[in-house]
Design brief:
Elements (H helix, E strand, L loop, with lengths): L2 H13 L4 E6 L3 H13 L3 E5 L7 H4 L11 H4 L5 H6 L9 H14 L6 E3 L3 E7 L4 E6 L4 E9 L21 E3 L15 E5 L3 H11 L4 E6 L6 E2 L7 H20 L18 H12 L5 H4 L9 H18 L3 H6 L14 E2 L2 H4 L5 E5 L5 E5 L2 E4 L3 E3 L2 E4 L8 H4 L2 E3 L6 H4 L18 E3 L10 H21 L5 E3 L1 H16 L34 H13 L5 E3 L1
Parallel strand pairs: 1-2, 1-6, 2-3, 4-17, 6-18, 7-16, 8-9, 8-16, 9-12, 10-11
Antiparallel strand pairs: 4-5, 5-6, 13-14, 14-15, 19-20
Helix pairs in contact: 1-16, 2-16, 16-18
Bound molecules: NADP nicotinamide-adenine-dinucleotide phosphate (NAP).
């Protein structure tokens, strides 16, 4: 940052009567890096975090088995060589406690804690047209004013529960895994029910099965899952990773998903069945998202390729599950592999070979109600000590809907987004001036920190531009927003994913208006590199599509 810009920020900040120049909402991966950039600029800024401490998703999801599906060394921040040299990831796919330690380490190392306020849930935000500021109301009754608001509220931070009759009557312990108890919570010898079989449940089911006396899994629809193949990282391996960091991040920047995985570009139809099998055997034994992202690109676009690969994975499942009836129940029949976000697993399928584990098909025998001692399905009554509702999230827009956000003319964001998000570049919203989103809806769906760093850098550059040019307001133009929405929709069209019955397309059976078929265009599916090129073009054209005043 030039001395001149620094002076402009200071003058701007000092001259204003508002409480802050920038308020960041959320102290997770994105919020931590955003406040680092603002602290470096000397801007009067704070982070408001609803939780009791920092970490976002890694603060909340403390269930056993919670860990990265991204390679640990591609998940860490890339902005500090010193940090990269200091930190040792102990596993290829870091477990939640280590990730939370990492985020605390970063925060302490760069002195960021002093900028953070915890236990502060934002309830409302109103834009003041005369002063170009936002008034931010907190649930504790406080009101703060700020020039700019940057949200870092996460994409899966609003858990949703089913609406079964009798849920309040249950006398045991029941919760969503997002709220896994912070105090030691021992399931040893307990009778446990799990409702839902998404990526979350698929991570914790094998862990709980080891200690519960009985584990009953209620599955409405199976998910395609594949082996994580995790392992430790030795000192020597970590040294070689450190030496490769520049190359690692360069590869992440160049690949659509922000990983080291690059698709096999030979062409599914151009190779023999034997060559396909050779690749798939190799991928099934590989770790992380290789099976998804190093596969033929046609897996994502071509029904035949997708069906063929799905049949391959189905056979792998049959080989791992002893009871053929159970195996068939674990194989999805309503969608192909990789159309929904692929959960990665460790001994998930073998868990169903245990005597203390039962799979109940909730499509065949639906849950009818929760009782004081357990639950009733259409044909049986069960008794449990613990019920875990691993029933997903109000993805992307849920965290925004919890805040009463009113922009120009008192227009409410909730109303604007009732049928799905509408944004400009996934960063701004027309009529919501001086408001930017990090990893908001309609940004590129990538390895989370890779996209978050990009968003923080772009947003910070925009603010620096505003300060340097003594500008007071940015507002995305309505027509630019419409063009972006159409582009986002268009990018879905070539992908089989457009049919997904998943949070990516906004499906959630527990929220009215989120029924299957009412697609919500939640992500930009054009990939990180294309997305970054678009952002750069906008900057180069002095923020094309944005009115600056
Ligand atoms: P999810 O994928 O949305 O799965 C929710 C599950 O609950 C589904 O099996 C769903 O069944 C079931 N369900 C919902 N409501 C139900 C009801 N009323 N009755 C019966 N079943 C019901 O949620 P998630 O597992 O929490 O995962 C969400 C996302 O979080 C993942 O896709 C992933 O991106 C992220 N995640 C990441 C990691 C990681 O990075 N390591 C780990 C965990 C999660 P239906 O399919 O029939 O609706």
């Amino acid at each position: 940052m030039s001395g001149q810009t620094a002076q402009a920020v200071t003058e701007n900040t000092v001259a204003a009567s508002r409480d802050y120049e920038v308020i960041v909402i959320g102290a997770g991966v994105a919020g931590i890096y955003q406040i680092k950039r603002l602290a470096d600029l000397g801007v009067k800024a704070t982070v408001l975090e609803a939780n009791g401490d920092l970490g976002g998703t890694w603060y909340n999801n403390r269930y056993p088995g919670a860990r990265f599906d991204s390679e640990s060394f591609t998940y860490g921040y890339s902005f500090s060589k010193e940090l990269l040299d200091e930190w040792h990831w102990s596993e290829q796919y870091s477990p939640q406690p280590e990730t939370l330690r990492y985020l605390n380490y970063v925060t302490e190392k760069f002195g960021l804690r002093e900028y953070m306020q915890f236990g502060c849930r934002v309830s409302a935000m109103v834009f003041n047209e005369n002063t170009d500021t936002w008034t931010v109301s907190l649930e504790d009754g406080r009101e703060l004013t700020t020039h700019f608001v940057i949200t870092a509220v996460g994409i899966l931070s609003t858990p949703t529960l089913p609406k079964f009759e009798g849920m309040d009557s249950f006398k045991g312990t029941a919760f969503h895994p997002f709220y896994w108890p912070h105090e030691p919570f021992d399931l040893t010898g307990k009778r446990v029910a799990v409702i839902g079989t998404g990526a979350t449940a698929i991570q914790f089911i094998p862990e709980i099965a080891k200690i519960a006396s009985d584990l009953t899994v209620f599955q409405r629809r199976p998910n395609w899952a594949a082996p994580l193949n995790n392992g430790p990282i030795s000192e020597e391996e970590m040294a070689s990773i450190r030496a490769r960091y520049d190359e690692i991040f360069a590869t992440c920047d160049r690949t659509p998903g922000g990983f080291e995985h690059e698709p096999d570009r030979r062409g599914y139809h151009d190779v023999t069945p034997e060559e396909r099998l050779e690749l798939w055997d190799r991928l099934y034994a590989s770790s992380g998202f290789a099976i998804w992202l190093r596969n033929f690109v046609e897996i994502f676009t071509d029904e035949e390729a997708n069906e063929d690969f799905s049949a391959y994975v189905a056979n792998r499942i049959r080989q791992r599950v002893n009871d053929p009836v159970v195996a068939e129940k674990l194989i999805p029949t309503d969608h192909g592999f990789g159309i929904q976000r692929v959960p990665l697993e460790t001994n998930y399928f073998e868990t169903y070979n245990r005597d203390n584990v039962e799979l109940v098909d909730s499509a065949e025998t639906p849950i009818q109600c929760i009782t004081p001692t357990g639950l009733k399905t259409s044909d049986r009554e069960f008794e449990f000590d613990v019920i875990i509702y691993a029933t997903g999230f109000d993805s992307f827009t849920g965290a925004f809907d919890r805040i009463d956000i009113r922009g120009l003319g008192g227009r409410k964001l909730r109303d604007k987004w009732a049928a799905g998000p509408i944004t400009y570049l996934g960063v701004m919203i027309n009529d919501m001036p001086n408001f930017a989103m990090l990893a908001g809806p309609q940004t590129a769906a990538t390895n989370f920190p890779r996209g978050a760093e990009l968003a923080v850098n772009w947003t910070t550059e925009l603010l620096e531009y505003m300060w340097a040019n003594k500008l007071s307001r940015f507002n995305a133009n309505e027509d630019a927003e419409q063009v972006w929405l159409e582009h986002v929709k268009e990018m879905y069209q070539g992908l089989l994913m457009r049919k997904a019955k998943s949070w990516i397309t906004g499906y959630n059976s527990n929220i009215e208006g989120h029924e299957y078929g009412k697609t919500r265009y939640n992500i930009y599916t054009g990939g990180g590199p294309k997305y970054l090129r678009t952002l750069k073009q906008v900057t180069e054209k002095d923020y094309d599509g944005v009115t600056l005043s």
